[in-house]
Design a protein that fits this description.
Layout (H helix, E strand, L loop, with lengths): L2 H20 L2 H10 L3 H9 L18 H13 L6 H13 L9 E4 L6 E6 L2 E12 L6 E8 L2 E7 L5 E3 L9 E12 L3 E3 L6 H33 L1 E2 L2 E2 L4 H29 L5 H26 L10 H11 L6 H15 L4 H6 L6
Parallel strand pairs: 1-4
Antiparallel strand pairs: 2-3, 3-7, 4-5, 5-8, 6-7, 9-10
């Protein structure tokens, strides 16, 4: 194993143990009520997991994008109710533009392509605009916003207390808040020109990759719960896992999970290698979203009515699967994008396009 693989293996072991030790039903139930878990955030932030892929000189842990991919997959498996993916994404925006990364949870936007404008007044900037359903906005220490100015695209670090934040939630109860900026004043040292590659398209692309990785982990957890239940539940004098119909559905579920994990990790590897990641990320978001649909259905069928009750763990995973598949573009959005990519490349490039991102991450 290479040094990088050794380090990642230790990271995976450490992160898995951390989430396993601290994420339980009590914490998830409290987070469903409160919107997030500040207790878990403090533990995860202390381990530097949210900024694991940010360079040390920028305030991160100095890891790679594949390290972050591994952490997000684990976080998804444990239905972690914290803005880990969003803080990593916001940290990437800040580090790319040379802006300081403050401690605390971060949110970023706009996630739906809205326009936020910035005007310079002396040494300060004034920001105006609105953003829909920004993940975790109301609990964020800072909002990292992509803005449009007379001199070009900029990145601004904004105190959310200066904004009007209207609380909202996704299906899983995670904060998805509307944010209005009405001449919000930001100091000049907290605004910088957007670095090359930091734009609305990149924000959506990296957000879709993060959701794919989170869904891959959530699918693994749902499969684990379904298999376990099939070995415990007795019907007609036999464990239900001994019935061929159940075995067939679980096998199909396992295939969906394997395909989703492979697609998500392949996309992370493509982005890390510096290859054009659009094809790989589009494919990953489509594949993980499809697996989320099929996998959640099978998991609930295996469990029967118990799978949807608040007292049972399965719903923490499946509600997130249903919510995350719609965020940063659902499978229909990315299918259109994928079709356009392949059409633009032409028929001669079809096979190479399908196989070029199949190296391991």
């Amino acid at each position: 194993m290479s040094d990088a693989s050794d380090v990642r293996a230790m990271l995976v072991e450490s992160a898995t143990r951390l989430f396993a030790d601290h994420v339980d039903t009590k914490l998830l139930d409290a987070a469903k009520r409160d919107g997030w878990s500040p207790e878990l955030w403090r533990i995860v932030a202390k381990a530097q997991l949210p900024l694991v892929s940010i360079a040390e000189e920028a305030g991160g842990a100095g890891g790679s994008l594949s390290d972050l991919a591994a952490v997000l997959r684990i976080a998804g498996r444990y239905a972690s109710p914290i803005p880990l993916a969003e803080t990593a994404l916001a940290g990437w925006m800040l580090a790319s533009c040379g802006l300081p990364i403050e401690s605390g949870p971060l949110a970023c936007g706009p996630v739906h392509g809205e326009t936020v404008t910035a005007k310079l007044h002396g040494t300060q900037w004034s920001l105006s605009g609105s953003m829909r359903r920004v993940p975790w906005a109301r609990i964020a220490h800072r909002l990292v916003v992509l803005v449009s100015s007379p001199t070009g695209a900029m990145v601004a670090c904004v105190d959310p207390k200066r904004c009007k934040v209207s609380p909202g939630r996704n299906l899983a109860g995670e904060p998805r808040d509307d944010v209005v900026l009405d001449d919000v004043v930001v100091a000049g040292n907290l605004v910088a020109p957007a670095a090359p590659g930091v734009d609305h398209a990149a924000l959506k692309l990296r957000g879709a990759l993060a959701r794919s990785l989170l869904m891959a982990g959530a699918l693994e957890r749902a499969l684990e719960l379904a298999v376990r239940y099939s070995t415990e539940r007795v019907q007609f004098g036999r464990k239900i896992g001994q019935f061929q119909a159940i075995q067939q559905e679980l096998a199909r579920f396992a295939g969906e999970v394997a395909a989703a994990v492979a697609a998500a990790l392949s996309a992370a590897g493509a982005l890390e290698r510096g290859a054009d990641p659009l094809l790989a990320v589009a494919s990953a978001k489509i594949r993980t979203a499809q697996a989320a649909h099929e996998g959640a259905l099978i998991a609930h069928q295996v469990h029967g009515a118990i799978g949807v009750t608040d007292e049972y763990a399965l719903h923490h995973s499946t509600l997130r699967l249903w919510a995350w598949r719609e965020e940063f573009g659902n499978e229909a959005d990315w299918a259109v994008a994928l079709g356009r990519i392949m059409h633009a490349r032409g028929t001669d490039a079809l096979w190479s396009g399908l196989t070029e991102n199949q190296e391991g991450s």
